[in-house]
Write a structure and sequence with these properties.
Layout lengths: L21 E4 L13 E8 L3 E6 L5 E5 L3 E6 L2 E2 L4 E2 L12 E6 L5 E7 L5 E9 L2 E13 L11 E3 L5 E5 L21 E5 L25 E4 L4 E6 L6 E5 L5 E7 L14 E2 L2 E2 L14 E5 L6 E6 L12 E5 L4 E8 L2 E11 L3 E6 L5 E5 L3 E7 L1
Antiparallel strand pairs: 1-21, 2-28, 3-4, 4-5, 5-6, 5-7, 8-9, 9-10, 10-11, 12-13, 13-14, 14-15, 16-17, 17-18, 18-21, 19-20, 22-23, 23-24, 24-25, 26-27, 27-28
């Protein structure tokens, strides 16, 4: 895929109206401060349609490529594939290898992908001396997908040591099956499981719906349309989710580290802070901390990370994110879960598909066309 070529991009169906776009946040949010951090994007590697990245052993950064390969970025550059499942995945619509994660001890490596039938699948591999052990592979979780878009697919280990899995509402448009608000399906949810606690996994006993006979025990939060990249603040443990909107509003959701789960982010009765197609706001709706409309170039939020590196002190504590169609890297200044400033960082990564956080807290920007950028001081 070529940079800035929408017709070949993975998110072509995420953004149902690619001509719509990004302005600032809603009117009640503060304007951008005058003195934003000054950053530059340094191209450190070129991958083949990179979709996700995660910190690996010995200071490395592992990069997932959409077709099903994983490569390692270190001081020597980008390696040959250390894993190749390209014969087992499909790349139609928004599918492919969509997420990768290590547990905290780098003892197990997890991949999230859509198989040849389009089923969302999370597999586990043991890791020995920094190397994947293919013979240990096992499937942890699967979820059938009714359509080829809104698959979600991001995975992360939380500060609590559990594996979190983001799944979209199943696709098409407007959530035709009502999955976002239906607690009897894993679609449109953020899940929380213990992959090593059972066969194929265990449910953490403090998950919010474990005692609800009408809800799936795996659910941590719900009301999500297509959570395209979520992360935990390495400094506070807070959760942030970039959730792609339908036609009008992109949103970023937040939950504090002390959360007990169960948050309802509103979809498909709400799109951001706005009722969707005459929907009524749920009584337990948790509104986004930031939203922006599509009156400029944006069409699909790409969630990022709170910066906790050392190279750019002025950026510390700010949430860095972008938009797939707009490509401008932006940041939110946060205080107690509230946005106190919105910054345009005056750099553009092209079709920004994902962010990655290295072991030292520095951030990388991944463009679907192949560029892997490190965010450096300008």
């Amino acid at each position: 895929m070529k940079l800035r070529t929408r017709s070949t991009a993975i998110i072509g169906t995420i953004c149902l109206t690619a001509s719509l776009a990004l302005t600032a946040a809603s009117a009640d949010e503060p304007a951008a401060p005058r003195h934003a951090a000054k950053i530059a994007l340094t191209n450190v590697a070129t991958a083949k349609n990179p979709t996700a990245g995660t910190a690996g052993p010995s200071g490395s950064l592992w990069i997932a490529e959409r077709a099903g390969t994983v490569r390692v970025l270190d001081g020597k550059g980008l390696s040959a594939p250390v894993l190749d499942i390209s014969a087992e995945t499909t790349t139609d619509g928004e599918r492919g290898l969509l997420g990768i994660a290590f547990d905290k001890r780098f003892a197990h490596f997890y991949i999230s992908f859509t198989n040849l039938e389009g089923t969302s699948t999370v597999d586990e591999f043991a890791v020995r001396h920094g190397r994947i052990q293919p013979h240990t592979r096992r499937t942890v979780l699967t979820q059938t997908q009714p359509y080829a878009n809104h698959n979600g697919g991001d995975i992360k280990f939380g500060p609590d040591g559990y594996l979190y899995i983001a799944l979209g509402d199943g696709g098409s448009g407007g959530d035709p099956h009502g999955n976002g608000q239906n607690l009897d399906t894993l679609l449109g949810k953020l899940l929380r499981i213990d992959p090593r606690g059972g066969t194929p996994y265990a449910i953490p006993p403090d998950n919010p719906f474990v005692n609800d006979p009408d809800a799936r025990d795996e659910i941590w939060a719900y009301g999500l349309r297509n959570p395209w990249r979520f992360s935990f603040d390495a400094g506070t443990g807070d959760l942030l989710i970039g959730d792609v909107g339908q036609n009008d509003w992109e949103e970023i959701d937040w939950a504090p580290a002390r959360s007990k789960g169960g948050e309802n982010y509103g979809w498909s009765r709400m799109e951001g802070t706005h009722p969707f197609r005459g929907g009524t706001e749920p009584a337990n709706h948790v509104p986004p901390i930031h939203e922006y409309d599509r009156t400029n170039l944006g069409c699909s939020v790409t969630g990022g990370y709170v910066y906790r590196g050392k190279a750019i002190p002025a950026l510390k504590g700010q949430y860095v994110f972008s938009d797939y169609c707009d490509g401008t890297v932006r940041s939110l200044q946060l205080k107690n879960g509230k946005v106190t400033g919105v910054n345009d960082l005056v750099v553009n990564g092209g079709e920004v598909i994902s962010f990655a956080q290295g072991g030292s807290g520095e951030l990388y920007v991944l463009a679907i066309g192949g560029s892997v950028f490190r965010i450096d001081p300008a």
